[in-house]
Design brief:
- The structure holds 2 protein chains of 2 kinds.
- In chain A, the strands form 3 sheets. A 7-stranded mixed sheet of chain A has the order 9-11-8-12-10-13-14. A 5-stranded mixed sheet of chain A has the order 1-2-7-5-6, with helices on one face.
- Chain A has helices at residues 3-12, 24-38, 77-90, 111-128, 182-192, 208-216, 231-243, 258-267, 289-298, and strands spanning 49-53, 56-65, 71-72, 75-76, 94-106, 131-140, 148-158, 173-176, 221-225, 246-250, 281-284, 306-312, 319-322, 328-330.
- Helices cover 32% and strands 25% of the residues of chain A.
- Chain B is an alpha/beta fold.
- Chain B has a domain at 64-169 and 256-303: HypD, alpha/beta domain 2 (Rossmann fold), CATH 3.40.50.
- In chain B, helix 1 (10-23) packs parallel to helix 11.
- Classes of the chains: A alpha+beta, B alpha/beta.
- Chains A and B meet through helix 1, helix 2, helix 8 and strand 14 of A and helix 1, helix 5 and helix 16 of B.
Chain lengths: 343, 361
Amino acid sequence: MNNTENRKQKTENRVLLSHGAGGKEMATLIERVFLNCYGPPDYAGDDSATLELGAHRLAFTTDSFVVDPLFFPGGDIGRLAVAGTVNDLLTAAARPLVLSASFIIEEGLEIEVLSRIAASMEETAREAGVAIVTGDTKVVPKGAADKVFITTAGLGLVLKEGVSGAAVRPGDAILLTGSVGDHGAAVMLAREKLLEGASMESDAAPLTELVINLLQAGVDVHAMRDPTRGGVAAALNEIARQSRVSMEIQEDQVPVKPAVAAVCEALGLDAFQVANEGKMLIFVAPQDALKALALAQQSPYGREARIIGEVGSGLPGRVTVRTVIGTARILDPPMGELLPRIC
Amino acid sequence: MKFIDEFRRKDLVQAVVRRLRELAAPAVIMEVCGTHTMSAARFGLKSLLPEPVKLISGPGCPVCVTDQYDLDKFLALGDQPHTVLASFGDMLRVPGTHTSLEKQRAQGADVRFVYAPLDAVDLARREPDKQVVFFGVGFETTMPTTALALKSAGASGLDNFTLFCVHKTMPAALRALLDSGEIKVSGLLLPGHVTTIIGSEAYEFIPRDFGVPGAVTGFEPLDILLGVEAILRQLVEGRPRVDNVYPRAVQVQANPQAMALLEEVFEPDDALWRGLGVIPGSGVRIRDRYRHFDARTRFAPILAQVPPPPPSACRCGEVLRGVLPPKQCPLFDKACNPSHPLGPCMVSGEGACAAVYRYER
């Protein structure tokens, strides 16, 4: 092998930040490394696994949090760590029950910082109706981690069977519980100290009440996904591929806060691709769409809920947007690293 | 949002589309600017144009026209100890011959992304034991901010900041493109942002010397359609000129403060463009006064060891000259896609292939 090939080989075989961005590269890495070794036979690509246990069906999920900065307007790493795992359980139509919380802490972190994070986790867990029942603490030498990384895992009780990204059908209404891009925009501004004076808050929140209300009211939900990294664009594309359906989204129905729209314009970002941490995409049978919308809007985290589009039977996996001027375009999942360490 | 929402109004768009139908005649209109290309694709504007009117992409994506050799040289500096490669985020995934900034970073190079050239100067101030090299990419729109950065570095007497200058200027490139006669364009949508700096008078040679209509155009859907309308109207009237359909930002005269800054820091030079080769007078070099901030001078011995890039299968050059539409490139969505780009047009936020891949595939 000559030098050039050698060097190329070396870079092709390394993990890049884009492998963690929630887009196509991450899917490729997961397939190539993890699914290849230990993927479950019924792996569907959902955010939670579901397991039969006696008469019950449990949802099980885990998530790691590496956000920088630790505290940002509207939330902190602790609130994210609880809300993120709770919301992933909810996507399986499960009532979240218990969480674990593991900490990798960099030597030198102020204990006061850790206490504030723990208090925020407790508060968020209470709001979400879950208990943190087990955990682990590791400290690594300065530089071996950045401040603190948190991993949570969660168990939930499945209330409605068969809710999966693979269960969406043509005709389903696509409900979005609020504005897009709030979390990503808020963290980026806090980190990069851009547009000082702009007020922007992360939407980080557990959506237990909103989702459980829908399920208990008997709404025929087919799939749910919280559009975190990669935003609504990534989540819609994943589900379109899982269910082998097409989707059409009405751009003028997707709420974007003016400040978020301004940040996206200024930085050349697409709000559809920016992360959310307190929103849910809910795919509902058409006859239940209005009922679901009304219920969602009753929740404090769903006041801005909208029906943003419809599932179709066109080219499988194809998501299109009807733009504000009435034309059509593709909604592609984001490529590459948009913003590392967003959650 | 003010100055945006009103230029995305459906009723106004439809009114212009009706007028375009009346003016429709066979025409090939080049979007000179990559931001036009991206916006036209994002809003699906091609579907609104009358059949005989075609939009094609041009050379106005600064990341894309950065020559491979220049990029390879900049990337090579990342192998030097205590060296920070500072760049705009757009360059992240653009493939050099052997590597990219993204891959350099994964291999341990110190790569930082900045939103403004002054941020790179701040970086140099904060980290005096590092050599910060900023990759100055962009047309006249971004050049004044780079000029400011050099002035700021000069005022602080920094000895650990340099500029790797690959800035380019638009008018000379347009002249070269039209001179070559390789592609027959009926009119040019001229770049609105560049023109806020250089003024619309900078394009007077286009109708005068080439008989080609031009319209200085903004970036919202209504702006672009108004630009197309202006060009079609000039064609119908048989009177080519430079119209300004972006009056909310652009004037006939150049921006005097910005031009004074450029004049102080840079002087005109020939520049190497991907796909277009060396174009006389289409770039700048750092004036003697600021020459100690020139990375090409400070790191000359290292840069001299970087070999010229071997021939590549990439056909971005033809895409940038407007002779190869992205979908007709045999590599498009096959060997070349955003995960494995063979050239910059597939990964730049203003790249013609990226626009088609993202929105029109």
